[in-house]
Write a structure and sequence with these properties.
This protein is an alpha/beta fold and 940 residues long. It contains 33 helices and 24 strands. The protein is globular, with a radius of gyration of 32 Å. It starts with a helix and ends in a 6-residue tail after the last helix.
């Protein structure tokens, strides 16, 4: 029971609240704000910045929308930034519905709608580019909302978020919306340092409870033995998980145990050793299971039976998503009613009305339409953006009941579902198969449970042979993960900083980055560890004192002998690696080899040689797969077994050509044709050098003649000395880490500046370091290959080309091929392109040599896989004709083409271009921005 005085104070607070902007904003909403939303909005209205960290689906974006409301109320501008175009398009549509299309704009790399509006939605890169260009659009900017700000941990694009945060004018209020991260207070402290007063509002509460399940066969079992929802499955301490606090379902544990016993009896896991003889490589047998795994249509049907649709099934493969749709179609699955089908048909046909009819088949339109009418669809980056937008809208309306998606859907696109299904708990990250992290699990399952619609959400993991229920429980409990900076100075960033602030001030600005902030904080703990170890070292020194002589010197001799023996062993290892690399360099097209390990294991024929620093020649395996062989696949030099002739017109992308050549490979092995004549394989390997052996012998002689060698307590002293040496090395390593983390960002900036000085983009003058005319061009080039693009432009790569060839060359500087697609240089579509590409490749080779010299990350290799499709498209070919002979999905082609448009647009805006070149870039844009590339569901 509250006292009269307390009731009076509450009444006064309510009355005062009715006069605030927040109260007026709340009247526009159809729901009451949660405490964390209200707290964050109060901070904003008080004139402070705010960091909001809350689970997916908790309603963080309301805070960003209040910032937009405040800006309009004060007559200021508001920018709403997102990490991906799909989220920008979605947010643009939502804000248009609230404030009207005349007050809202959209800016992405390839779309510009009402850019001078009071409210502009944009990708974060667009805002970064505005800041470096001192755009007039920044005038009267009052608020910036950074949605999905935890994206700054992304190793490829994360630095852009920090650039924006650092460079925004100080009067702009920043609203940072993040998933729940374990170091929100640390991130907030950094924001407070660089942006001024910033409040941190953290909520780990899910408005809709999330229940965890495992689907065994077609049966849905609870992960935990009791009723444990998301908020309850929290760790009791930093190292405790849900499996420590709650009992995992005994039925799941018994199933896991029975499978383990079954596989032990079957000897599972015993295979996979090194292959002997000439037989085909044998893979270890698959793990056995007593459970018959449900098919994808059966999983959806089971969820439908239990009332758990709509559902998102995460499949970490685009092909897997498309296969799931085909399987559901073949199974005759229907999830929609007749009225729903009519609405879906109408929406789909309206969306496709402007698509060229001749492109519908290659876009997979008809199968996509049939799946939607039945209530299911795929959703991945390889789809046409228009198709994805239609899927998102129909799913949000509850008309589409099942979506098979890659993890990109979890990056912020507003597609909440009742249930989320994870087919596997591991994925291929582009380099290797890795387990899903607790943070990724949280991000994916966070889509389950629609606020205001569902009473509860459901996360479902499909049972696989070898599933560990305890590990799944651990993922379900650890909902937060640390936010670690991926920031590093790039060439474009550095040249823009020097242009605006000069070299010295630029170093100071970079020292304010979150990366340096985290490094400085870690140094404090490291310094404490060093002091503790130094005290222990003094104690060890006393314990190893010997009355016969200097035991420190004696132990140093023992240590030198041990180290020299280790180096001798490593010399052998390096010799083997060097021999392997040399043998790869010597391979020529047509050589038949036997690869002992890796993805290319087995017999293969070399398609293209590679004489780079780390040779990875392209081969065709017996099973007709294109692969690249690297040193990591070999234990020594690779021997040429035979040689076959590769047809002059061989096309590695043609299944027939690959099938014919693999047949020739098998025939050559059967006939035991002799290898081509060439340098022998002898003389590759060498043991430890005579000099190393002589040095070891001399050290042993000194050891035996040392006074301490005859000490009766020698081995006891030696044990203390070994501890001393081990601790000394650990202490020195920590001290090295301290040195490395001090001014680490500024040191990287200095090395980047050295490269720019080498190429003449910067110059040293009596007044300091300044940018040159070439440097001013680099300021307007944004992308992962920014310096390579500027160098290619400077050295005339784009000269002598027509508009179609210009578009094709631009694709070389944008496209990123899959690993297995690299290594083959196709014949160019025009004679003028060959010398232009030679310029790009030469500049790339010289640049990477310089980057290695200055210990900088090397620029990605130019990719030629998009040259032919882009050239055909620019020449006016239909989409199907442009993509013929490639394995490129239509959606991927559209996405890459829009990035080529973005690059050409950047180049066209550079000052002081050679005569006619700007017109050429503009003409190239006109040639490729047509048809499905020009079409977007977002319209004026």
């Amino acid at each position: 029971m509250t006292s009269p005085a307390e009731r009076y104070q509450l009444a006064r607070a309510r009355t005062a609240h009715t006069t605030t902007s927040l109260f007026q904003f709340e009247q526009t909403l159809g729901f009451d704000l949660d405490p964390f939303q209200r707290d964050a909005c109060v901070c904003l209205e008080a004139g402070r910045g705010v960091l909001v960290a809350a689970p997916t689906g908790a309603g963080k974006t309301v805070v960003g929308e209040f910032a937009v409301y405040l800006a309009l109320e004060k007559g200021l501008k508001a920018f709403y930034t997102t990490p991906i175009k799909a989220l920008s398009n979605q947010k643009y549509s939502e804000l248009c519905a609230v404030y009207g299309a005349d007050r809202v704009g959209l800016l992405t790399g390839d779309t510009s709608i009402n850019p001078d509006a009071a409210v502009v939605v944009m990708t974060t890169e667009v805002l970064r580019n505005m800041l470096y260009a001192n755009s007039d659009t920044l005038d009267d900017l009052g608020y910036v909302v950074m949605d999905e700000v935890h994206y700054l941990a992304d190793r490829f694009r994360g630095a852009v978020w920090e650039e924006v945060i650092i460079h925004l004018p100080s009067e702009v209020r920043l609203v940072s919306l993040s998933a729940t991260v374990s170091n929100a207070e640390e991130f907030g402290a950094w924001l407070d340092t660089v942006r001024g007063q910033t409040d941190v509002v953290v909520s780990e509460h899910r408005p809709v409870p999330l229940w965890q399940h495992v689907m065994v066969g077609q049966n849905l079992l609870d992960l935990f033995a009791g009723d444990v929802a998301f908020d309850e499955a929290a760790p009791a301490g930093p190292d405790a998980g849900a499996e420590d606090r709650y009992e995992v379902n005994p039925e799941l544990l018994e199933l896991a145990s029975s499978e383990t016993r079954l596989n032990q009896r079957a000897g599972w896991g015993a295979g996979g050793g090194s292959r002997r003889g000439r037989g085909p490589a044998k893979r270890p047998p698959a793990a056995a299971s007593r459970v018959r795994r449900a098919t994808r249509p059966q999983v959806i049907s089971a969820l439908d039976r239990d009332g758990l649709l709509p559902a998102i099934t995460f499949i970490f493969s685009r092909n897997g998503c498309e296969a799931a749709v085909s399987q559901c179609l073949d199974a005759g699955l229907w999830l929609t009613t007749e009225p729903e089908r009519e609405i879906i048909s109408q929406r789909v046909d309206e969306a496709a009305v402007d698509l060229p009819p001749e492109d519908l088949a290659v876009l997979g339109f008809w199968e996509w339409r049939e799946g939607l009418i039945r209530g299911f669809s795929a959703h991945h980056a390889g789809m046409l953006p228009t198709f994805k937008e239609v899927v998102e809208k129909l799913f949000a309306l509850g008309l589409v009941k099942a979506v098979f998606a890659t993890e990109t859907l979890a990056l912020g696109v507003n597609m909440p579902a009742r249930s989320v299904v994870l087919e596997k708990l591991d994925k291929f990250n582009g380099e290797a198969h890795v387990n899903v992290t607790a943070g990724e699990y949280t991000q994916l399952t966070g889509r389950a449970g629609r606020r205001g619609i569902d009473v509860e959400g459901h996360a479902v993991v499909l049972w696989q042979p070898g599933t560990d229920p305890g590990a799944v429980a651990g993922l379900a409990s650890r909902r937060t993960y640390p936010l670690n900076s991926s920031f590093r100075p790039t060439y474009n960033m550095s040249i823009n900083l020097v242009a605006q602030f000069g070299q010295h001030r630029s170093r100071e600005i970079l020292e304010t980055s979150f990366a340096q902030f985290q490094a400085d904080r870690s140094v404090v703990g490291l310094a404490k560890q060093v002091r503790t170890r130094e005290e222990s070292l003094r104690g060890y020194e006393q314990s190893m004192t010997c009355h016969l002589g200097d035991f420190t010197e004696y132990s140093r001799l023992r240590r030198e002998i041990s180290d020299l023996e280790d180096r001798a062993a490593k010399t052998n290892s390096r010799s083997l690696r060097s021999a392997a690399a040399s043998s790869l360099e010597m391979l020529r097209p047509g050589d038949v080899v036997d690869v002992p390990a890796g993805r290319s294991q087995g017999y293969a024929v070399v398609l293209s040689s590679d004489t780079s620093r780390e040779p990875r020649p392209t081969v065709l395996t017996e099973d007709k797969q294109l692969r690249r062989v690297g040193v990591q696949d070999l234990s020594g030099p690779l021997e040429v077994l035979s040689h076959i002739r590769i047809p002059k017109n061989f096309n590695a992308r043609s299944p027939k050509d690959r099938r014919d050549l693999s047949s020739s490979l098998r025939n050559a092995l059967h006939d035991k044709r002799p290898p081509r004549r060439g340098p022998g394989q002898d003389g590759f390997l060498s043991g430890a050098t005579e000099r190393q052996e002589a040095a070891i012998a001399e050290l042993r002689r000194k050891l035996r003649s040392h006074p301490c060698h005859g000490c009766s307590d020698r081995e006891q002293h030696a044990r203390w000395a070994e501890r001393w040496w081990k601790l000394r090395r650990e202490t020195d390593r920590l001290a090295g880490q301290i040195r490395g983390r001090t001014n680490t960002i500024a040191k990287t900036f200095d090395r980047v500046s050295d490269v720019l000085l080498h190429y003449g983009y910067l110059q040293d003058t009596p007044s300091g370091t300044t940018i040159t005319a070439a440097g001013r061009k680099l300021r307007r080039v944004y992308g992962e290959k920014d310096l390579l693009i500027a160098l290619s432009l400077e050295h005339g790569a784009f000269e002598g080309l027509d508009a179609a060839e210009t578009a094709a060359l631009a694709s070389v500087l944008v496209y990123q091929a899959k690993r297995e697609e690299r290594g083959l240089r196709p014949k160019m579509p025009g004679v003028a392109l060959d010398p232009s590409i030679d310029v790009v490749v030469r500049q790339w080779s010289a640049l990477t040599d310089l980057e290695e010299q200055f210990k900088l990350p090397v620029t990605g290799e130019p990719e030629l896989g998009l040259v032919w499709p882009m050239h055909k498209w620019a020449r006016g070919k239909a989409l199907q004709a442009a993509l013929s002979g490639t394995e490129l999905a239509a959606g991927d082609f559209v996405r890459w083409t829009k990035q080529v448009v973005d690059l050409l647009d950047q180049l066209a805006k550079i000052d002081d271009l050679p005569p006619g070149q700007r017109r050429l870039f503009i003409d190239a844009i006109g040639l490729i921005r047509r048809g499905v590339v020009a079409y977007s569901a977002i319209s004026d």
